[in-house]
Design the sequence.
């Protein structure tokens, strides 16, 4: 999952495992590890047993194995080369509990001094929840595991301290929405659309593309105030509205080599044609209220 990646995507977790009472035909147990891969792909890649350098795989016979050392402990079974069971990894101040079924991770829980992450999967999706040290929900979401539908993409939510949503990141539609602490929408970005909102929840600015034309709209008190775009002739056009109704239209146009500002009233009648230089060229002529 973008700026905002899923919290399950952390650093590489390598589980180094020593066995008790198992002989590996001249292979030192110090060089044996169960490798879960990068947690970016925790629910995608198969768990495997390799040497410590990860240069070759090591195949254990079917049976039950208990592993424990200062870095981790595990209780696993192997049947028809597939690994199932539970592994706990300890690294610095981080503890991670894994559940493995048929050589795939089906769930894991991460515990640190600052966060707790619970993640699990079903046949189609992986799900996660992230909490702070006070067990207050900070983020949650899901990611698709279906290779035929949105594979590797998903939706996540982040939360303010008050429990309200602060951001929704939708990688499926590539839409990202931010909110004010009171729950009102603040900003939305996605596809060809940008929207910004005032703190009271009313729309302030909307930019979008339609029929290959880029529009830039500003609003006052929730009603359209200006509607700006470049027409097919390449002229900059700004339409002004009062209470959502067209009041006048201004067009910046080159006439006989001179840049001029043409103003038409709401009926389409030309009411002004002046050199653009007389309009404080380069300055914004309108400033909608926020």
Sequence:
């Amino acid at each position: 999952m973008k700026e905002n990646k899923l919290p399950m995507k952390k650093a590489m977790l390598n589980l180094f495992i020593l066995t008790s009472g198992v002989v590996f035909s001249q292979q030192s147990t110090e060089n044996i590890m169960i490798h879960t891969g990068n947690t970016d792909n925790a629910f995608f890649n198969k768990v495997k047993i390799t040497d410590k350098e990860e240069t070759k795989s090591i195949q254990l016979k079917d049976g039950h194995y208990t592993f424990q050392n200062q870095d981790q402990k595990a209780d696993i079974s192997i049947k028809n080369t597939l690994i199932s069971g539970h592994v706990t990894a300890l690294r610095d101040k981080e503890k991670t509990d894994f559940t493995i079924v048929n050589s795939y991770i089906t769930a894991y829980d991460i515990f640190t001094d600052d966060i707790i992450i619970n993640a699990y999967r079903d046949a189609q999706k992986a799900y996660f929840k992230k909490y702070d040290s006070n067990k207050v929900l900070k983020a949650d979401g899901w990611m698709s595991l279906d290779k035929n539908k949105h594979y590797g993409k998903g939706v996540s939510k982040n939360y303010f301290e008050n429990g309200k949503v602060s951001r929704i990141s939708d990688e499926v539609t590539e839409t990202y929405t931010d909110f004010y602490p009171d729950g009102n929408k603040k900003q939305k970005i996605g596809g060809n659309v940008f929207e910004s909102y005032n703190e009271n929840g009313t729309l302030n600015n909307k930019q979008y593309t339609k029929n290959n034309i880029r529009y830039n709209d500003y609003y006052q008190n929730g009603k359209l105030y200006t509607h700006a775009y470049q027409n097919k002739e390449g002229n900059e056009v700004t339409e002004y509205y009062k209470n959502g109704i067209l009041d006048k239209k201004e067009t910046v146009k080159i006439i006989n080599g001179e840049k001029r500002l043409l103003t038409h009233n709401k009926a389409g009648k030309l009411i002004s044609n002046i050199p653009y230089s007389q309009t404080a060229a380069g300055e914004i002529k309108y400033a909608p209220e926020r």
The chain has a mean pLDDT of 84. The CA atoms of residues 188 and 256 lie 42 Å apart. The first strand starts at residue 12 and ends at 16. DSSP finds no helices and 23 strands in the chain.
